[in-house]
Amino acid sequence: MSYNPEIHHRRSIRLQGYDYTNAGIYFVTICCYQRQHLFGEIDNGEMKINAIGQIVSNLWQKIPQHFPNVELDGFILMPDHLHGIIIISESKEKSSLANIIQNFKSISSRKINRINKSYGISIWQRNYYERIVRTEQELKNLREYIENNPANWTDRDTE
């Protein structure tokens, strides 16, 4: 099927006109391709990370090594997605949120595919969800949400 802009349009989920290189706090959710359960399982309200999940978790923790103006806050890896809080500080070196996420997804996909000997397989959905954190209370609520996420898990595949 050839490209038809009436059918094949993608709306941006980013905030129109916002500069994502701005210093700020961002809550992100990144989902596995087709919501595959790649990273482990929830057992009795606790996330049990498998080997692939450990790779993803380790690479997430290394984001500040690649982006010196980035700090990480709350983080949780779930069977088919992750939630994390990224803090971008003022810097001469501008790092956009999109560049940070793209770098993380690219590195983790290559590493997982190399280990699985399955080159070119999609690990992540094409996009990601982000929310600009504007208040201290919102940050506190998001930290609690991340911490409680495994206990609130319902497996969509069994519903």
Notable characteristics:
single chain; 23% strand; 159 residues; Alpha-Beta Plaits; alpha+beta; two-stranded antiparallel sheet; 4 helices
Explain what this protein looks like in three dimensions.
It holds the Pfam family Y1_Tnp. This is Transposase. Residues 21-149 form the Transposase IS200-like domain. With 159 residues, the chain is α+β, with helices and mostly antiparallel strands. The protein has one domain: Transposase IS200-like (Alpha-Beta Plaits), CATH 3.30.70. 30% of the residues lie in helices and 23% in strands. β2 and β3 form a beta hairpin. The termini are far apart.
Quaternary status: single chain
> Under CATH, the topology is which?
Alpha-Beta Plaits
Question: How would you sum up the global shape?
Answer: globular
The total tally of domains equals 1
Topology diagram in text:
Blueprint: E1 24-31, E2 40-43, E3 46-49, H1 51-61, H2 63-66, E4 70-77, E5 81-88, H3 97-116, E6 129-133, H4 136-148
Antiparallel strand pairs: 1-5, 1-6, 2-3, 4-5
Helix pairs in contact: 1-3
Characterize this entry briefly.
The chain has 159 residues and is α+β, with helices and mostly antiparallel strands. It has helices at 51-61, 63-66, 97-116, 136-148; strands spanning 24-31, 40-43, 46-49, 70-77, 81-88, 129-133. 30% of the residues lie in helices and 23% in strands.
